[in-house]
Amino acid sequence: MIKEYQSLPEILCLTNALQQVWTNLVSNAIDAFPEHGVLTVSTEQAIKDNTHYAKITFEDNGEGIPQEQQDKIFELNYTTKKKRAILDLVLAYRSANKYWPSTVVG
């Protein structure tokens, strides 16, 4: 795992919700890893419409999700995995979007 953390100010947040989102994102990344998988977690400050945000990025060196499937990956029973449903992403997205509606996949 590579950590690229920039300094962030203290923020008001729901720590349990963040923990669930991040745990699910990390779990999904690990499931999709190639043989020598690498997960990079980075933080930075961002400004949008004169509002300051903490931007947290999770990126792995897996194949990625094809563009044509990205609209489907948060549907409850949609999966490209053979062994189990893709609940990690569904739970992460729903939790993140509930509290932080500017969640982006890309």
* Total domain units: 1
Radius of gyration, whole Å: 14 Å
Query: Which CATH-level-2 architecture?
Result: 2-Layer Sandwich
| Biggest sheet record | 3 strands, mixed
* Strand segment tally: 3
Q: Approximately how much beta-strand content do the residues carry? A: 15-25%
List the uncertain runs. none
The CATH superfamily bears the name Histidine kinase-like ATPase, C-terminal domain
Q: Give average pLDDT, whole number.
A: 78
Please state the overall shape, judged from the principal axes of the Cα atoms: globular
The secondary-structure element order is: EHEEH
Strand order of the largest sheet: 1-2-3
In whole angstroms, how far apart are the ends? 20 Å
CATH topology heading: Heat Shock Protein 90
The helical percent reads 25-40%
Notes on the protein architecture:
The protein is an alpha+beta fold. It has a single domain (2-99), classed as Histidine kinase-like ATPase, C-terminal domain (Heat Shock Protein 90, 2-Layer Sandwich). Helix content is 29%, strand content 23%. It has 2 helices and 3 strands. The protein has helices at residues 15-32, 87-99, and strands at 2-5, 39-48, 51-60. The chain has a 3-stranded mixed sheet with strand order 1-2-3. Helix 1 links the parallel strand 1 (2-5) and strand 2. The mean pLDDT is 78.
Any descriptors?
three-stranded mixed sheet, alpha+beta, Heat Shock Protein 90, 106 residues, 2 helices, single chain
In short:
The chain is an alpha+beta fold. It has helices spanning about 15-30, 85-100; strands spanning about 1-5, 40-50, 50-60. It has a 3-stranded mixed sheet.
